[in-house]
Specification:
Helices cover about 5% and strands about 40% of the residues. The protein has about 290 residues and is mainly beta. The protein is globular. This is Secreted protein.
Length: about 290
C-alpha cells in the first residue's frame, strides 16, 4: 500500500531548526533525515523513527532512519531513467460525470477486438489520468461489450501477457479500482480474469493479493531540486510461498505467478514543494506462470 506522511508547515520549520546544529557538526554523520545515510564515511546512526519528521519514518515509531545506517557501505549509485514495463488504462462506458473523482469499474464482458494501441489511443487520454495504472503505454488493447450492451476499452502492458493470451469472443471479468490520498496521486489496479482464473493484473500503490515491502537499503538515489528519489528491491510475499526479493525493473516467477516489480521507490521531501514528508510508492504486475 502507499503511505504518505504530511507535516504542518510550522512543525516542519521547527524540526529543521532543531536539526540544524546536528547537521552542521559533521559532514559524515548520517542524520537519517530523508534517508541519505551521510556520505558513506562513518555510517550514521539513523533517525530514531519516533515521529514522522525523524528519519523519514512513516508512523512507525522506533523504525529508525531510512538511510543513516547505510553510510558505511559506500556511495549508492544514481538512479537512471528507464522505460515503464507495467501499465494499464480503462475507458469506461458510460463515462462518469466527474473524471477527477474516480469510480470503481467492474463488468463481465465479451471481447470484440484484440489490437495494438492507436497513435492517439482514447484509453490513454490525459483527462483519464485517474483511470490508469502507471504512466507508460499499453501494449495490448481489448475492446469489450458488457452484459448491458455498453462498449468499453481496457489496455494492458505486463511482461508475460500478450495478444495471444486472449481472443475475440472470450468472456472476461474486469475489475478496476482507483482512488487518491491527500497530497498524493493514484492508488489504482486493473485485474482481468477468465473463467474465475487470473489472466493479468497491474497495480500502482494497491494490493494485488500478495504482500509487498522494500528491502532495507536503497539500490540507487537521485537528488532533485525538491525531492530525494530512492529505489529499492521489492520483497514479495505470495501466500504459501517463501518471500522473494525482486529488483526494480525485473520479473520473477513465484509459485503460480510471474511477477514484475516495475519500480519500488521512496520520495522524501522536507521543503513542502513536493509532498511534505515521505512517499512510498510501487508499480507491480502479475500474470499466471502458465497461462490459463
Amino acid at each position: 500500500m502507499r503511505h504518505r506522511t504530511s507535516l504542518p508547515v510550522l512543525s516542519g520549520l521547527l524540526t529543521l531548526l532543531l536539526a540544524f546544529p546536528a547537521c552542521s557538526s559533521s559532514s559524515d554523520d548520517g542524520d537519517g533525515g530523508g534517508g541519505n545515510g551521510g556520505n558513506g564515511g562513518n555510517g550514521g546512526s539513523g533517525g530514531s523513527g519516533a515521529s514522522t519528521s525523524s528519519g523519514g519514518g512513516t508512523n512507525n515509531a522506533g523504525g529508525g532512519g531510512e538511510g543513516g545506517g547505510d553510510g558505511g557501505s559506500g556511495p549508492v549509485a544514481e538512479c537512471q531513467l528507464r522505460p515503464y514495463r507495467v501499465s494499464a488504462c480503462v475507458l469506461p462506458s458510460p463515462l462518469p460525470p466527474n473524471l477527477n473523482n474516480p469510480q470503481p469499474f467492474s463488468a463481465t464482458a465479451t471481447v470484440t477486438a484484440v489490437r495494438v494501441p492507436s497513435a492517439n489511443e482514447p484509453c490513454e487520454a490525459e483527462e483519464l489520468y485517474w483511470y490508469r495504472v502507471n504512466h507508460g503505454r499499453s501494449e495490448v488493447m481489448l475492446d469489450l461489450t458488457d452484459t448491458d450492451g455498453n462498449d468499453f476499452t481496457v489496455g494492458v502492458a505486463v511482461p508475460g501477457f500478450t495478444a495471444a493470451d486472449v481472443a475475440v469472443g472470450d468472456v472476461l471479468e474486469i475489475d478496476f479500482q482507483s482512488d487518491s490520498v491527500p497530497f498524493g496521486g493514484r492508488q489504482s489496479s486493473l485485474r482481468i480474469e477468465r473463467d474465475g482464473a487470473l489472466l493479468v493484473a497491474a497495480a500502482e500503490n494497491r494490493d494485488l493479493g500478495f504482500g509487498i515491502s522494500d528491502d532495507d537499503a536503497p539500490t540507487c538515489v537521485r537528488e532533485g531540486d525538491l525531492c530525494t528519489y530512492r529505489e529499492f528491491d521489492a520483497t514479495v510475499e505470495v501466500p504459501g510461498e517463501p518471500a522473494v526479493s525482486i529488483p526494480s525493473g525485473e520479473t520473477t516467477e513465484i509459485g503460480d505467478l510471474t511477477i514484475t516489480n516495475d519500480r519500488y521507490f521512496k520520495n522524501y521531501d522536507s521543503s513542502g514543494g513536493c509532498n511534505f514528508g515521505l512517499s512510498i510508492e510501487y508499480v507491480i504486475g502479475a500474470v499466471p506462470t502458465s497461462s490459463p
